[in-house]
Design a protein that fits this description.
With 368 residues, the protein is an alpha/beta fold. The protein has eleven helices and 15 strands. The chain has helices at 36-48, 104-107, 121-125, 128-141, 144-166, 174-215, 236-249, 251-257, 278-281, 284-306, 323-333; strands at residues 2-11, 14-20, 25-29, 67-76, 79-88, 91-96, 99-100, 113-116, 221-226, 268-273, 276-277, 311-314, 339-343, 356-361, 364-367. The strands form three sheets. Strands 2-1-4-5-6-7 form a six-stranded antiparallel β-sheet, covered by helices on one side. A hairpin with a 2-residue loop joins β6 (91-96) and β7. α4 packs across α6 (174-215). The longest helix has 42 residues, at 174-215. The two termini are 24 Å apart. It binds adenosine-5'-triphosphate and magnesium ion (MG). Magnesium ion binds next to α1.
Amino acid sequence: MILTGLELFNFRNYQRQQVEFSPDRNVVTGSNAQGKSNLLEAVYFLSHFKSRRAPRMRDLVLVGEERASVRGVIMDGEVRLTVQISFGRQGKSVEVNGQRAGSASRARGILKCVMFSPEDLYMVKGDPGRRRDFLDETMEGLGPGAAKKVTDYRHVLKQRNAVLRTWEEHGTRLGAVIGPWNEALVKAGAPILLERARMLGEMRKDVEVAYRAVAGEEKKVSIEYVSSFEQTEREVSGVEEMMRRALEKSGRDEKRLRNTVIGPHRDDVEIRLGERETRFSASQGEQRTLSFCMRIAQGKYLETTTGKVPIMLLDDVFSELDSDRRAGVLEVAGAGSQAIVTTTEPPGALAGGAGRVFRVERGKVTVV
Ligand code: ATP
Ligand code: MG
């Protein structure tokens, strides 16, 4: 999949900007705070209809303006598509090929991309939530059906937590009202747990291969899904049963904490490099290398499951990496897909083999 053109209107620090991308490697250079990350964020937004950095859409609109839009021209094989999202105070509207899309959730994910950003090192060293976000994002990338599973679970969880907070006000026993919510949580949660474990199983090998290529060493990378409750089953009905039992057992904790204490929203991924758990021991370079390799694996997984090669968005991927690892990153990331890579440094070796080099200055992009 290739993004041939991008048009921004009042998006972040861009007032009006048009960019034509090369189908190969695009290098975006510029000093700090000029708009490099914002440009990648716009591409990500065109794919996911949300930003990873800003939970509130209004932060994406140029300060002082009411409305913003992002439009992309995409080549999906031989097929040319345009996707446009406009958003602002009056809500969001999506157009595909110039026609208003009936449902945004169906237009989401037409553009397939994978983004590495500097915050990704928290996937390796940060809280479990970062790793769950990675898995949820991977699922959302698979299409509307899988994305709906993620939102359905969040919805049920929210409602169940509301019951745990307020049941006393209704003068009943918790046991009398929680039953249906346990069942809803189990039905929504078990498929997610299985899907996540399966996705990780498929990505594991690609992380290892990429790690070897970038780091040039044979350290064993291990990535395991860790459930928040005892879980040994491999079929949905079995997982459901184990989750049901775990929920019953955690009743007392839930009463005290007024919160759902087990389920996919409390699960984690354990990452090890050699013998050590990376969360507590990986070096800066190792954290970056590993998180980059997880993004590569995410891209490969999307490619094999959807049949479309995602665009690689690599924000500041070279900092804290030595020259050997930088070369490795380029080799791994450039293989067979379109890439947009940002750097604060002069393009130097990066420019070699690059399709196009851009310079960003105060929200203006020029071709170098
Ligand atoms: P760095 O190299 O430091 O990562 P960058 O080029 O990636 O820099 P961006 O993150 O793209 O920088 O941000 C560029 C500028 O856009 C920043 O000064 C940021 O404060 C500004 N900015 C962010 N959101 C908005 C907005 N809604 N309106 C106007 N400016 C914004
Ligand atoms: Mg940046």
